[in-house]
Amino acid sequence: MNYLNENRETTLQNSATRLLALKGKDWLAEILGKNHPLHKSYANLSHRIRGFFLYKGQDEKDIFLEHIASGKRFNLTTKSFDNAADLREIDTILFIGLVRWEDEWWFSGIYFQQEFNADLVLDERNSFESRQQVNFLDQDKKEMKETLEKQYEVFLEFNNGSPIAFMSAGKLQDFAKEFFNYFNDSLNLSKKEIEEVRKRSRQEGFFKPDEDKAAIDFSDKAKSGLVYFNPKSGLEMALSVNSAFPLPENPFFKEEYSEDHIFSLFMDQSISTELAMFCIEKCSNKLPFFTEGVGKLYLNDIDFLLRFWKDEKYFSYPRITSIGSKQ
Predict the structure, then answer these.
(1) Which are the contacts of 185, defined by CB distance < 8 A and separation ≥ 6?
(2) Nearest to 221 by CA among 208, 202, 234, 240
């Protein structure tokens, strides 16, 4: 039953249909119509969180939880959870699903508990994947938008005014690292401010990963690639699509590969909608695929097609992970 509940909740709440790239909550809100009293409630149902939490106590109304990876606090309403009486020891570890419904956090899907485990806590606090589970909570904050806008401005300055850079695949990681170093330098933080950032990270148990171990060599996967600054999400990389961009600054463009690379750009779910649209806006008048071929027809329904091809990844969100913010 736990498996069935988990599968149902994941499918209904976090999975999108290929038709219009909408989730279950979006379809239900549309079916109910704007005049229905629950239309806004379903439309505003949050992304579902599933991960490890520390139990921090409870009262008659709420169960108090702390997301281990991010340190963020959550009040789980007791009316959604039948196992509150089983929670006794502070800092017991729970693996649980949560979703925000009408400004309350509700139990969703799966739940199990285990004794406190220091190794698991340390691993979670140093896991970007686990921290990213709650990224959506910050995406509409003013500070997040300002950071993304600042990074975009600095990227244009770093890259000669262009939001896209083309290079051999083996240079992608170094380029990204150089940009983030350039961005950090542009902030002009004092030694005191840098130490405060490090202190907040240490308090959360977050340690900077070993860059040599974290580095990925893309040269064995493709000959060329690109780095694009997506205004909606941040820095992204793409491989084997350079021939979709007949631009002066792109020495890797080869017309014979152009059509294949365009299809990859449109259908690969790891590539953002914004990058696909950048190709159309800047290059469609220079590519035979769009001026003479089937791509000319695609342009009439490109939004519908991109929603179909990219479904769950059609929408882009900030990929900036907050450190030192527990609210």
Answers:
(1) none
(2) 240
How high is the pLDDT of residue 97?
95
What CA–CA distance (Å, rounded) separates 12 from 10? 6
Nearest-angstrom CA–CA distance, 321 and 318: 8
Backbone phi, psi, residue 253, to 5°: -70, 130
Per cent of the chain over pLDDT 70 is 92
Residue 295: which of 280, 310, 277, 315 has the closest Cα? 280
pLDDT by residue (tens digit) across 276-317? 999 999 999 999 999 987 899 999 999 999 999 999 899 998
CA distance linking residue 244 with residue 101, whole number of Å:
42
Average pLDDT over residues 216-235: 91
Contact 198, 207 (CB under 8 A): no
CA distance 71 to 204: 7
What angle do the packed helices 273-283 and 302-310 form, to 10 degrees? 150
Between 164 and 215, whose confidence is greater? 164
CB-side exposure of 70: number of CA atoms within 13 Å?
24
Averaged pLDDT of the chain: 91
| Helical spans, DSSP H, in the chain | 2-14, 24-32, 39-43, 118-125, 128-131, 142-158, 172-186, 191-203, 211-214, 258-267, 273-283, 288-291, 295-298, 302-310
The answer to whether 237 and 275 are in contact (CB under 8 A) is no
Residue 14: phi and psi, rounded to 5, are -110, -15
C-alpha span between 44 and 159 (Å, rounded): 38
What does the pLDDT look like over 25-54, one tens digit per residue?
999 999 999 999 999 999 999 999 999 999
Q: Which two tokens stand for residue 67?
A: 């997301």
